[in-house]
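Researcher: I'd like a structural prediction for the single chain below. Treat it as a standalone chain; there are no partners to consider.
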Amino acid sequence: MSVQLDSANAVANAQNSQAGVWEQPVEHASRIERHELENAPFVSDAGEVRGPGAGDREGATRIDGDATNAGGRTQTETADGKPVLVDPLHESPEVSITRERTAVEEGGQLYAISDQLVFTTGSGNDSVQVTQNPNGSLNFDVNGETYEVELARGQEITIRAGDGDDTIEIDSGVSVNFVIEGGRGDDVINALGSGDNRIAGGAGNDTVQVGTGNNYVEGGAGDDAISVLGDGRNVIYGGAGNDQITGGQGVDYIDAGAGDDRIDGVAGNNILIGSLGNNLIHTGTGDSRVYAGNDTTVVNNGGNDVINAPEAIADRISAEAGASNTVVNVVLDPSLGRSITIEGSEEFVSRVQDDIQMLRNSPFGQQMLAEFDQAAVSGNTVTIRELQNEQNGYASMIPTYISNGQAGRGSDVTISYNPSFFLEQLPAPSVILYHEMSHAFNAVTGTFMPGEYDGGAQGDQHPDFGLIHPERQAVGLPTSHPPFDFGDGRVTNTNPYPLTENGIREEMGLDLRPSYNGL
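Model: Treating it as a single chain, here is the predicted structure.
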């Protein structure tokens, strides 16, 4: 039997095609989640396209996000094999507009887990401007063509600009979530609204600004300038190149990536990573956690920072008046994690390599990677596979359990990972990845604890009452199982703390997760 274990709330589902556990994503208001799927089945429509027609905005073409076009429908699939139904809604010399719904099949019926209205401009130096009307509809200006857009419930908008030096402007009054793909070229992307946006600059020297939402930004290859103007929770990956990244007033997770980068934390209790290259990190005025590489200069501008760094750069770590540093010596081993296989697009592989590099700089992460490399010697390996258009993460394996005080034989494990997925309760993609890595540790070592949690002193009033033990193991919470000797003096009834989600949360200065189901 194959089992999936995930970072979000798990529910048993007998119709799961893998005969294991069907994972339900954490509820997120802007998306059609699985708990809503019964209300949103696809239908075999064969009628004409609804919309576009004459809009209320003079001269604008009206686009109905709830429109379908079964006659022109084509089907593609995500990198992880989920079908995507593509309905063409409008075509012009400047832009094509489609509705794309990522689907899962259950009980002979297709259900949408992602619904996106997609504007594709193609190659060329494109200009896209978006504002929002009082009634919630959106005004698009695409290379001089105007559109009035009404979205379906739970729908997001994707802008695929393609090659060229593109300019994309999302007005500060826009509250809708956007997915923006800049493509190759030197792009300017100003997503200044309050939506939770996911932005990929692509190759080129890009300039990206984000507003007050909780944003995810990948700069991609090139010398990028990325800045946060609001106070949301942002996750930023600079990627390869010499990047300049400026945080905002909220809590930011910033990984500069390879290259000679500069990070300015500004304010907030940030997580700042400058692993590869000659980096300069100004931590800002909050209490930050820093992961510094072999060639990094760190300046604490006013907080109580914890800095994980090699001893060789000790003289390049300083604190301004009123600030204090706690430096944790880390011995870097670039070979750690060499046994992990990464499967997906070129962008995904590069992005996951940044996460693994961060774990090489992490005292707890080093222990996790070492466990994987040791297990690979015995033939049990870890694969990280791209997960697209699904707001979740999970690990799949054939589980073997502790029995009579002895570990099982272990098995290979595949982690399905969406690197742009995070929530306030799951505050960074790397935390979600680490949760799945904790499952992977149990898989490759044969140390899943059988049984279900009895709720402790709270009994059936505990939010995790009846939860399978492996999920509490991964978080780092006590189970009802007798303590087990994991070796090296690690006797516990959950996973060794450095190998758990709460372990990495504590190291990063994040709030601990008090239960699995309660988040």
